[in-house]
Design brief:
- The chain has helices at residues 23-35, 49-60, 96-107, 127-134, 170-180, 198-205, 236-248, 267-274, 319-327, 348-358, 389-398, 421-428; strands at 5-7, 14-17, 37-43, 64-66, 72-78, 90-91, 113-116, 139-141, 150-153, 162-164, 186-190, 211-213, 216-220, 230-231, 253-260, 278-287, 290-298, 332-335, 362-366, 369-373, 381-384, 406-409, 432-434.
- The protein is an alpha+beta fold and 435 residues long.
- The strands form six sheets. It has a four-stranded mixed β-sheet with strand order 21-22-1-23.
- A hairpin with a 5-residue loop joins strand 4 and strand 5.
Length: 435
């Protein structure tokens, strides 16, 4: 049996809330804390299944990790050369981020490793990271179609390399920079468009200089990492569901607290504002090298737009929620240049299109995006999330503009990124139950 969400039609979102910690930063904090010299205390850590898989992997490689209270992790780092071989395969669960970044970490070790995942992760493409790592001297075997499990051969001599990525990907960039920590000389990655830079910021916070020039980032091998405190802000990808929900539901007035507003992640705010959303960024501050702010969002009529291609990499994880905003906007919204959505936890272009059609929305599937014709009201219906957490939460929010209940099947994986979603959403006014 899997979890099914049932969401009542209509309503509004009001009050103030803080969504869980940033998943991307939580992954990286565990990795760099384990590889640093000294003790790292992480607060605001996301206790979601994806990040817990990363934590468990480093415990399996001999790193001492304590959990004194929820959302807090204390790591006794072992340094760049202190990891030990795991007795079993390292299970990354549903997390593509963890698997791809771990490729970079494990490529530089002197022992063999195997990375596995759940059924969804085992279908996701990995050559985009294993092939450039191979040019640095890594040896990583994949299944015949380039998917997990991944068998990483230890004891390889890595060498610095200048990479130019064909597709903007923070996961690939991060894996290559991490492998650069064990490489001879300098490793540089040039990306075609800006992507989230949490790895670069956190490396600098752990004492590893990162040379940055426009869209190129470089690290020098064998630079030791120094432990220190890490405070994880609230995840803007999780906040996105409430930004969209409050924007589409009449009478909404919601304050989202302590949200990470790294400029490589704020595409969702920029796109919603272009559509006419009322979002104020309040009390900007910096926490541990990451910009943070409170976000005040109120209902405002939305209009369809052609989404600027330069904003696509800055909102790649938020498009399922943005498609709901487009469905409720006046006029047509067109997204192109987002073929990356085809290879997430599901084919998010096709799965979102199927769900939108089920709610009465006219849309056209494009090879690299969607064309969506907005409407004033959605109808109730039944949605199949295909085990994708962002699909499930997006259609839960869509019920705010529906004229009947929305039922969403296969919602177990919401816990991968947003534990406590139902309770937080109910507290803000969403009529959601689970069975």
């Amino acid at each position: 049996m899997t979890t099914t969400f049932t969401v009542e039609a209509g309503g509004s979102l009001r009050g103030r809330l803080r969504v869980p910690g940033d998943k991307s930063i939580s992954h990286r904090a565990i990795m760099l804390g384990a590889l640093a010299e000294g003790r790292t205390k992480i607060t605001g850590f996301l206790d979601g299944e994806d990040c817990l898989a990363t934590l468990a992997a480093f415990q399996a490689m001999g790193v001492s990790i304590e959990r004194p209270e929820p959302n807090t992790v204390i790591i006794d780092g072992v340094g760049l050369h202190g990891l030990k071989a795991s007795a079993a395969s390292l299970d990354m669960g549903n997390s593509g981020t963890a698997m791809r970044l771990m490729c970079g970490v494990l490529a530089g070790q002197d022992f063999d490793s195997t990375l596995v995942g759940d059924a969804s992760l085992n279908r996701r493409p990995m050559r985009r990271v294993t092939e450039p790592l191979g040019r640095m001297g890594a040896r990583i075997d994949t299944d015949g179609d380039g998917t997990p499990p991944l068998r990483i051969h230890g004891g390889q001599s890595l060498r610095g390399h200048k990479h130019t990525l064909a597709v903007a990907s923070a996961q690939v960039k991060s894996a290559l920079l991490l492998a650069g920590l064990w490489s001879e000389g300098e490793t540089c990655v040039t990306e075609p468009a800006p992507t989230r830079d949490h790895t670069e910021r956190m490396l600098e916070g752990f004492g590893c200089p990162v040379r940055r020039e426009r869209r190129t980032a470089c690290v020098t091998g064998d630079t030791p990492l120094r432990a220190g405190p890490v405070e994880v802000p609230a995840d803007i990808s999780s906040a996105a569901f409430f930004l969209v929900g409050a924007s589409i539901a009449k009478g909404s007035d919601l304050l989202l607290e302590h949200v990470g507003v790294n400029p490589t992640r704020t595409g969702v705010i920029d796109i919603l504002r272009l559509m006419g959303a009322s979002i104020e960024v309040l009390d900007r501050r910096e926490i541990g090298g990451e910009p943070v702010a409170d976000l005040q969002v109120r209902w405002s009529p939305l209009r369809g737009i052609a989404i600027p291609r330069e904003l696509v990499p800055l909102a790649i994880d938020e498009f399922p929620a943005l498609f709901i905003a487009a469905a409720c906007a006046e006029g047509e919204t067109v997204l192109t240049g987002a073929e990356e959505l085809r290879v997430k936890e599901s084919d998010r272009i096709q799965v979102m299109a199927d769900g939108l059609v089920a709610l009465g929305v006219d849309c056209e599937v494009l090879p690299d995006g969607l064309r969506i014709q907005g409407r004033s009201r959605l109808r109730g219906g039944v949605i199949h999330s295909h085990g994708d957490h962002r699909i499930a939460m997006s259609f839960a929010i869509a019920a705010l503009r529906a004229d009947g209940a929305v039922t969403i099947h296969d919602c177990d994986n919401v816990a991968t990124s947003f534990p406590g979603f139902r309770a937080l959403a109910r507290g803000a006014g969403l009529g959601i139950t689970a069975s």
